[in-house]
Amino acid sequence: MAMQRNYFTVLFFLKKSKLLKNGEAPICMRITINGKRAEVQIKRSIDVTKWNTQKECAIGREKKYQEINHYLDTIRTKILQIHRELEQDGKPITADIIKNIYYGEHSTPKMLLEVFQEHNSEYRELMNKEYAEGTVLRYERTARYLKEFISEQYKLADIPLKSINYEFITKFEHFIKIQKTVRKMQQ
Predict the structure, then answer these.
(1) Rounded to the nearest 5°, which phi and psi values hold at 157?
(2) Which of 30, 53, 116, 143 is least enclosed, having the fewest CB within 10 Å?
(3) Hey, where are the domains in the chain?
(4) pLDDT band, residue 106 (cuts 50/70/90)
């Protein structure tokens, strides 16, 4: 599962099929990543005749339309920023994840290595009190193997806990066996 370049677009359009009581059409945003879409109502509406479909913006010099266009620019910038941050952190990127972060519904998903680091820090604090040094070192070695494995196998810095499945576990087990063999041969 090599990390491909995400095909990513943000589009604003009118929902002409759902006109509001005042006769205006709600403005919606569509986030598309690799063909998968998420639509967002942005809580603004406009007279259908005052919308430029090609340029995805309001037409008109009136303050109302200038404000709508400014608002659309702000949203677009925020979405691009969320996408860039996910990319920089090597986190998974889907239209739904971006939509959820935009709405602040949940920050990014719980990540495997992150959780493992927290676990290992707690164990290290209790080393030689509740846990033997060997146990702590084995956990830390496993975390290093996981990091290498995720980087090699998925070209990511970390993966969401919820994407761990049977296939991931069996591939990781195989990876560890190979690592141990390599280390034995180096000794």
Answers:
(1) -80, -25
(2) 53
(3) 8-103, 112-186
(4) low
